[in-house]
Amino acid sequence: xxxxxQFKLVLLGESxxxxxxxxxxxxxxxxxxxxxxxxxxxxxxxxxxxxxQTTVKFEIWDTAGQERYKxxxxxYYRNAHCAVVVYDxxxxxxxxxxxxxxxxxxxxxxxxxVIALAGNKVDLAATRRGVPxxxxxxxxxxxxxxxxxxxxxxxxxxxxxxxxxxxxxxLE
Length: 172
Ligand code: GTP
Ligand code: MG
Known about the structure:
Number of strands: 6
Low-confidence stretches: none
Number of helices: 6
Strand content: 25-35%
GO biological process, one term: vesicle organization
Bound molecules: guanosine-5'-triphosphate, magnesium ion
Shape: globular
Subcellular location: Cell membrane
Oligomer: single chain
Mean pLDDT: 97
Keywords: Cell membrane, GTP-binding, Lipoprotein, Membrane, Nucleotide-binding, Prenylation, Protein transport, Transport
GO molecular function, one term: GTPase activity
GO cellular component, one term: plasma membrane
């Protein structure tokens, strides 16, 4: 019989890497060149149909990346079934920040949490790439994370990212 399962998903990562933009693309299929920085966190939902029998509903917490909001993050990743940790492929420092979020999740979040690392803004990579794809991919393999390079701007791999996560969740 058909079933709809709900999962709590949290987005984490440095300010301006494109967390809200990825969510806006996924939920509304829109993009803004001038998005305002998130205050606190935003909540949105979206469903992914995996097959005729199975729909996954994501309850998405889009957290604020600015340093002053860092202490709020545990409220959002506690009880999360899945996390998308985002960096900007043009900003190596943002991958270091992503790694520190991943360490924190591995220590403090649910031990079964599904974690995806997303290298966003890949539309800029031809001229401004700062993080080689192989470096991030190797790190993701070592840490057993899902990994994709994405673009909220041109839609590359955005629905694929959420579908890949949905397929890793316990669907029984
Ligand atoms: P905080 O809310 O401060 O944590 O930032 P955020 O991670 O939510 O970033 P946000 O989505 O607000 O995007 C920051 C800026 O990057 C905005 O000007 C976006 O238009 C731009 N941006 C986001 N995603 C992409 C992308 O895939 N490609 C390009 N070229 N720009 C992007
Ligand atoms: Mg935001």
